[in-house]
């Protein structure tokens, strides 16, 4: 009976995989934090490290009014939302917003896996929760202008103001068929 000899290519592939794994583990940096690794490899590594509680926490989105560093750390909160009128304090300046979002982010990064949180806000007609921000017409008013370029420029201005407060994503613009013009997102 003959012996089976693995192909040189198979040996090289196996050697490369072992070498990559040993380099990743010897560097002390988890694979999911290695920017040169593929997205798929990073996601797989992170998911394997996460507990069920951490996975559930990452799927949660809580309102800003109930968020604090302790809740973020204890529950592994993945997202926070400031809905309409949800502000850190009366007449909150862009700096107040940035300080608040930064504090929440530091709490998320201090957890076991250091997963950053996503912070979202309703800014359907400008960054209207920030004192002194530029306020634009609601979508129904923009639609009446029949000027797509104006809507684009308003979106760009809103994006700059939102990003300037440390917030990464916005629940706007809303493209919907309105059934009632009294609805705020029309």
TrEMBL record:
GO terms for molecular function: beta-glucosidase activity. It catalyses: Hydrolysis of terminal, non-reducing beta-D-glucosyl residues with release of beta-D-glucose. Its EC number is 3.2.1.21. It is an enzyme of class 3 (hydrolase). Residues 1-24 form the signal peptide. Keywords: Glycosidase, Hydrolase, Signal. GO terms for biological process: glucan catabolic process. Residues 51-185 form the Glycoside hydrolase family 3 N-terminal domain. Coiled coil: none annotated. Belongs to the glycosyl hydrolase 3 family. This is beta-glucosidase. It comes from Ceratopteris richardii.
